[in-house]
Structure formats: structure tokens, C-alpha cells
């Protein structure tokens, strides 16, 4: 759940950042994809840390 939430927040953040920088559609999509990957990866590590500490 944390990974999905992170990916959605990342995609939204990336798209808004590219739009604020006056990017074209391809730029907006690329920023959204890369930020979604980064935030999902962070969410994955957070999930692993939480799960590991719960044991």
C-alpha cells in the first residue's frame, strides 16, 4: 500500500514540476514516470524496514 501511494504521489509531483517548468506533454510524462519510480522505490524500502522491525 505504501508503494502504490508513493508512486501516485511521485507521479503527481513529477507532472506538476514539469508543468510548472513549461514542459511539453512528453516532458510531463517523463517527469511523472521517473518521480513515480523514485517514490515507489522509497516506499518499498520503508515497507521493508517496517516489516523487518515488526518481527
TrEMBL record:
Source taxon at top rank: Bacteria
- Which keywords fit this entry according to its UniProt record? Membrane, Transmembrane, Transmembrane helix
Q: Which organism is it from?
A: Roseovarius gaetbuli
The membrane-spanning stretches of this chain are 28-50
Q: What is this protein called?
A: Uncharacterized protein
